[in-house]
Amino acid sequence: MCGIVGYVGKKEPVNVILEGLRRLEYRGYDSAGIAVGGNGDGLQLRRAEGKLRNLEEVIRNKPLEGTYGIGHTRWATHGRPTEENAHPHRDCTGRIVVVHNGIVENYVTLKKQLIADGHKFVTETDTEIIAHLIEKYFIGEHVALEDAVRKAVRQLTGVFAVSVISSDEPNKIVAARNGPPAVIGLGEDEFFVASDVPAILHHTRNMFFLHDGDLAVITPNGVKVTDFDGNVLERKPQRVTWDPIQAEKGGFKHFMLKEIYEQPRAVRDTTLGRISLDTGKIFLDEMQITADDFRRFEQVYITACGTSWHAGLAAKFMLERLAKIRVEVDYASEYRYRDPLVGPNDLTILITQSGETADTIAAQRESKAKGSKTLAVCNVVGSMIAREAAGTVYTHAGPEIGVASTKAFTAQLTALFLITLHMAEVRGKISYDDARKYMEELAQLPGKLEHVLKLDAETEELAKKYHRASDFLFLGRGIHYPIALEGALKLKEISYIHAEGYPAGEMKHGPNALIDENLPVVIIATQDTRDANSVLKYEKTISNLQEVKARSGTVIAVATEGDPHIADHADHVVFLPEVPELLSPILEIVPLQLLAYHIAVRRGCDVDQPRNLAKSVTVE
């Protein structure tokens, strides 16, 4: 979950690397460091504990310059977040430095072997092992740096993305991947390596992701890719269409708030070109899963982590209602350990913003090993999960920088609804006319989201009243329950308030014991008045609301415009436009995101970089 940036070219590497690290700081902010070479004075290192601004201050006080270099922003796994444990790490001679994202699982064994060989270690990290292993095969052996790196990485057990430089071979970066992401950027007479696209998007849009087992040699003359055995590989670059401005705050105080406001565009772009209001047909791109495949599937397994798992829970209601197929939803971190009964007649859907989440990759490979076709819902073109999937529905949310996911979630819900409609059509469970009605509603969603965003001031007023609460409870029934979970997650992620999401019907089975005058309870009580099932759930939810009020609880209700009764039962009501129930989560989550945001700001929390969390979880 750390961030890596490397550069070889005509620009001053320190500026390029620091700029890239700023855009990767969401991946880790316990410590940071940089190493550059090419000025005739060996490799120069600067490191600092804490956020990147501390490293920038170190460099202001003690400048460094060169022609090539690597940098790192850290989210600690092995070793405390101290300056000593910050990357880059040196070998014994100081002629090799390494930055690393991942975990070396056999580092204790390797460390003992290296100590026996005379190596001396100065940190608590597993990364330092890599520097010493490379030294073992490079110094005095008269081999190329990339050959020494190949020998070293073949001894590593675990997951890693590494970048290596040496003063002995100036203007060369060697990068290797086995698990965490690594993207190579191709500029004009300059080349880059990074952990994620935003780090280098201001310099080039031409890039490609390394595959697992790839090793890249980056010099001013270009990039050469081989496998760990030295066999030359071809990796075709792709042009990333994200506007670099999308990765900036755009006048908003925080990335999270900007990304909340980008949700109408994200939903619109994810829908664009995939629906035909004339024919009622869905068009899914990047799809090697045929209509016959969709017809023969007997069950769908959905695996994801965190916010994406909540999107998967909502998709279960969509798929079972419209496509009439059984659905199981698993945490990706648990999936492969329970030996799932997935097989060739099942579809596995992987949901991930980054396409590089380690647990979700492992779940994908578990399903593929058992014969299941896999379908990815992903925001990053060319990412690992997208490459390994039989089909991919890309969410066109653009880069999401805030650690707490917002626009990626609503884009995922949109993509999952498109998949649902497609499956329902090809399986003959919905007519094209009925599908067209849903598409018309979907096409109107961006405008309705714009309307919901006007509730910003209203949610800020609620934050003033309740930002000192120590606990929150979120309730919902049916497809609204995953949104209760997501609302609770958003609040706890960024405000550090303990929050629980619960099915409203489970109140009598425990949560009622928590209710008193100090507990705000957020109840999702929307309804689609055209749907009898939705109206029934609404009536049951009102009964739960009354249970809360009978116990002196404070009720914040999310309800549908035109509801004449809800204000009689709730302390506060946030009204949303009416939509079909299966699309309601896309609207419902927005006021909960805004509420969490404003509460966190009032509590003085770091909204974009909440403590102990990182954006992309690329290690287990």
From TrEMBL:
All residue ranges annotated as the SIS domain in the record: 290-429, 462-610
Ranges for domain Glutamine amidotransferase type-2: 2-221
Pfam families: GATase_6 (PF13522), SIS (PF01380)
Biological processes annotated in GO: amino sugar biosynthetic process; carbohydrate metabolic process; fructose 6-phosphate metabolic process; protein N-linked glycosylation; UDP-N-acetylglucosamine metabolic process
Recorded catalytic activity of this chain's protein: D-fructose 6-phosphate + L-glutamine = D-glucosamine 6-phosphate + L-glutamate
GO cellular component: cytosol
Active site: C2 (nucleophile), K615 (for fru-6p isomerization activity)
One annotated GO molecular function: glutamine-fructose-6-phosphate transaminase (isomerizing) activity
Subunit structure: Homodimer.
Protein name, as recorded: Glutamine--fructose-6-phosphate aminotransferase [isomerizing]
Species the sequence originates in: Koribacter versatilis (strain Ellin345)
